[in-house]
Amino acid sequence: MSRPELVAPPEIFYNDDEARKYTSSSRIIDIQTQLTERALELLVLPDDGVPRLLLDIGCGSGLSGERLTEHGHQWLGLDISESMLDVALEREVEGDLILGDMGQGLGIRPGILDGAISISAVQWLCNADKSCHEPRIRLKAFFSSLYRCLGRGARAVLQIYPENLAQRELILGFAMRAGFSGGIVVDYPHSSKRRKEYLVLTCGPPSLNTTTPEGKGEDGESCSDEDSSEDEENQTVCISDRRRPRKKQKVNKKGKGRDWVLKKKEQLRRKGNVVPPDSKYTARKRKDRF
Amino acid sequence: MTYLRTHIHRSGRFSGNEELKTLVKLPLPRDVPSNFQMRLLTHNMLSSNIKGVANGFPLKIEVVKVVEKEVDFNIDFLKNMFHKVEWKALAEASTTMGYPELPENADASMLDSDDFLHKFHHALLELHLEEGALVCPETGRKFPVQKGIPNMLLHEDEV
User: Fold this and answer.
1) pTM value?
2) Is a pLDDT exceeding 80 seen at residue B15?
3) Which end of chain A is more exposed for a tag (fewer CB within 10 A), N or C?
């Protein structure tokens, strides 16, 4: 189930069984918690202890909402799957739940929210599940209504799994057209598993405090967007290179050496793995008695 | 869930996958309080989203069942919310829900009064609509509220 979007519409895919499975898998809970923590970090709410009113778009069974409660915020959850909301009721989440479709626009009064988060939900909008669905219209309705209901200077952090480059451009394009400023933050762009994308949007024109924060685990110089397009290029090169005979690895008597170890460690670090720091002991030659 | 798990272990029926499924689907024990809630805070934020409706706020409330639940009092949140809440709609809604204590008009100076804050807190966070409906003020379309969840899904022709 790597891409539930391709299986069925959300209100049908997340039926009773799937909702229960989703919420009892410790792996999913773990990932959702991490994503929510990171989204809250990117939301940069002022740290004054005042509970804020947040919207959780695609709240599902309230896994993300629980994190918001733990941070002391009040929240409203919107989801299209009744089964997921039922599980949320069973789990006794603190926020209020609304059964609704984000593609029909959020029916919320203007300017009232202090922020919005969404974990792995917005890419569903790119699918046309019914004959009356037109992804562009739905995206437009969603982003323009989100822009309306957020207060001035409030942020929205939407974690997304776009299927390809075109989908990401589409989502970002409609966000910009609705009047948001901001961009995409990519965490761990070099890792296929830990790579996560966050759409960080701010209401109002670009200014100093609307600059997009840097993603985790990427090189300081390269911008996240360019980075991703480079990735795509690299991939195509890799494919055309495939038929070439592989170079034989050089293994001389001395072994691969310190440079090689340092290079490998750097590669793993970029993927986001936990790698011990380099020291004078790294790749040191062993004594002769070994 | 922990309750169910221990139950499974004790009876020693932790073998088949199917059995597990049926066991997990057992209703929760009775003493768990129900968490069905829709606060007036939520009501104060929702507006009707039907195409062509110019002013979908405030939604009228049709009450079938109201529950009251104690919630922690947080003065900072109330002060933050006071400027965002549509007071008239809140006062009207709380009267419909059977709590006519709120004054008709309110301004920021009243936030110093403890009595007022407690009333505000009670109306905003402690009154819950469990069953009923929200009615669009312009078209009269009903959005049913079941188990405290308002169903704001629109039909195809309303988008």
Assistant:
1) 0.74
2) no
3) C
